[in-house]
Amino acid sequence: LKASIALRQPIKPMLANPLKDLGSVFDKCPHGMYAEIKYDGERVQVHKDGDDFLYYSRSLKAVQEHKISAVKDYLPNACPSAQSVILDAELLMVDKKGKMLPFGTLGVHKKKGYSDATPCLIVFDLLFLNGTSLMDTPLAERRSQLEQLLTPVTGRVQLSEQHRSLDTEGLEDLMQRVVDDGLEGLVLKDPRGTYEAAARRWWKVKKDYLQGGA
Fold first, then answer.
1. Dist CA 33 CA 26 (whole Å)
2. Is the separation of the CB atoms in 7 and 86 below 8 Å?
3. Do 111 and 93 touch, CB atoms closer than 8 A?
4. In the annotation, is 12 catalytic?
5. Could you tell me if 190 and 139 are in contact, meaning their C-beta atoms sit under 8 angstroms apart?
6. 11, 16, 73, 193: which sits with the fewest CB atoms below 10 Å from its CB?
7. Catalytic choice (38, 67, 189, 206)
8. CA 105, CA 133: separation in Å to the nearest integer?
């Protein structure tokens, strides 16, 4: 059986397997590879149905109001042209300099300690658009449609940082930059890949995975 998707009916998000060797991803993605920053936030699935927006967590429950209240007013401006949309995204705190804060800072008490930071929705996938499921559409096309659809609002609703056509050296340099910036790692994706609910078809690389954690 294959899962589809419909408005107001969230599905389990697609996930990633750990990868301990950057070079091996080129064997897994012979047609090329997209590398995205791995954001250390909370997974959110956004459903836009007309003027209504609904927010679902990784466990398919409604996202707590205090976590989403600071970004929900900006979403109508971020995707004004579509009547119905389903987005896959990550919600995290970002300070005034654009630095992304670690997981857990979205909590009510933790947020008080970061007065110069605001919640930001980082969008990285488009699963549904104007009545049509895009789950069987290759990632490269989904991303292209997402880039045309979304109008970023700095610090509130943004597109994920994505790199394409990297060779082994370029991928290693990007991973080093991520480590130096204190970010969590990378997610590596096949541009021809479809979206499979709950399946682990992507690969994630953290500094703890490489060289035995050294």
1. 7
2. yes
3. yes
4. no
5. yes
6. 73
7. 38
8. 33
